[in-house]
Structures are given as structure tokens and as C-alpha cells.
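Hello again, I could really use a second opinion on something today. I've been puzzling over a protein and I'd love to understand its fold better. I'm sending you its amino acid sequence along with the C-alpha cells. It would help a lot if you went through both lines with me. I've dropped the whole record in just underneath, so have a look.
***
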Amino acid sequence: MATTKALKITYRASTGFIFLFEGVMPALTSHTELAVEGIRHLGYPDYFRVMLSVFKVAGALALILPLVPARIKEWAYAGFVFTMLSASVSHWVVDGMGEYSLFPLFVLAILIISYFTYHKLQSQRKDSAQSHSYHRSAVSGVAQ
């Protein structure tokens, strides 16, 4: 069983990568000619690029901000899974199997690491809260 410290480091590193790669980078580069041409090359309309960038930034913020409810984080994770799989398939169909179709799967693997470490940390947090609650009731003699 991994230590809590190792889980936290893994979670923060993987989620930080997703935040930078899927949130910060689209916010800063989605308007560049390279990005515009990349979306056009795949056959998508220009409004799709704008919409995708907005959703990526919103999803990345949902993952990185600690006060965002767990249900919203789940939707953000799901949205990124759909995005990565769609990007891989789009590049594969248009350009054939190659680096552009494989790279989204690499990012997906990092997202999956973030997802599972997030849930492991949530589980440990719940277990810890339950044991503290049990300990308080045992010490005070009052069931909670």
C-alpha cells in the first residue's frame, strides 16, 4: 500500500501536468495560427476550437481547485477522457497511426493516474475521518 505522502505527490504531479497541458496551454495557444490550422486540418469548424478551449480550461480548473465538489471533478475527468480518446481517433482517421494519434493516449494515461490517486486519497480521507469520529465517541462515551 502506497504511503499517503507518495500518493499526494503522485496526485499533485499528474494533476498539475493535466492542468498545465490541458488548461494553461489551450488558454495561451488556442488562438495561434498553428492551433487554428490543426483544428481545420482535422475537419472541425473554427467554433469547435473555441468551445473545446473553454471546456478544457474549465475542466482543468475543476481538477486543480480543492473546493470544487467531487461530482464536478468526476465530470471533468470524464470530459477529458472523451477529449483524449476523440483526439486520438481524429488524428488516426485523418493522418494514420502515428505520434499525433498516440500522444493523446499518453496524456490519457497521466489523467488516469490522477483519477485513481484522487480517489485513493479521498478514500483515505474518509477512513481517517471515520476513525477520528469513532475515537471521539469512544473517549466521550457518546455514540455519534
User: Anything to note?
Assistant: The two ends are 30 Å apart (CA to CA).
